[in-house]
Prior knowledge:
With 307 residues, the protein is an alpha/beta fold. The protein is built from twelve helices and nine strands.
Amino acid sequence: MIGSSIHPGYFQYPEYLALMAREFDVTTAEVVMKWDIIHPEPERFDFSQGDQVIAFAEAHDMRVRGHTLLWGQALPPWVLEASFSREQWMQILCEHIKTVVAHYRGRIFAWDVVNEGMANEGTLWENFWLRAIGPDYIAMAFHWAHEADPQALLFYNEHFAEGMNQKSQAVFALLQGLLEAGVPVHGVGMQMHIWLSGPPSPEDLAANLRRLAELGLIVHITEMDVRLQWSSDSMASRLQRQATAYRDVLSACLQASNCKAIITWSPTDRYSWIPSFTGRPDAPLLYDELGRPKPAYYAILELLQAP
Ligand code: XIL
């Protein structure tokens, strides 16, 4: 599966929809299934934008990944400002997960259940849910999601844990523990927000994919983009290095038995979150601002067409 994230905020642009439908067979809701949008008030869920994503995807034979049931970010004020007991937070989280997963049962084939649970040092990220519930929140979230849709593939999604490092080691240990405890987790999402000087080495990525396969876990590359900023090279050379980074990741994925999808975070440079996130212009995707294929596109095309 090759995909892009999608956002209904851009559905007004015909070229956005045309490229999305033409080039990709899987998509992830980039923003609109996060808690602050889908559950803006205690007693109110708003599925309208998520439903737009599903309708577009189904009309174009694309599979949908749900993103995300639980994260330390994108929480609405009613959650951030409330003070409840541990038991009350468990009830709130359970209701949230079950309501959202049940709403999309049978239409979302894979969910990012827990997003970014780990800090770069390899300890659990001190996020809202760790403070409210404690480390068990992770196992609970997977159980509740599984109860609401036993067919859905359930993912732990993480960034900077693609290669072999302290964080990916901690993610591996976490998942091993969850599986030993019988927690229904099926896959790992590797976000793959990378830049020219720091992509995971092909060997490390392959090794990490392999050890996750040994646990029986599948992998999706869930949010790939490759930043060009922080380089003094010419633009032509940066685009070439970007192409190599994309090709290396796809190559590792194709060679791994358990890597089933590669998804970029937006279809074209025009819609990327990176410029607003970093405060600097960038061009991290496979297609330029006008939707024209870049060297990275041709690099992965060549790889896919190789015998
Ligand atoms: C980003 C979106 O792309 C932005 O539009 C939004 O403002 C913030 O979130 N890791 C994730 C994604 O798991 O949900 C984030 O998406 C990017 C980093």
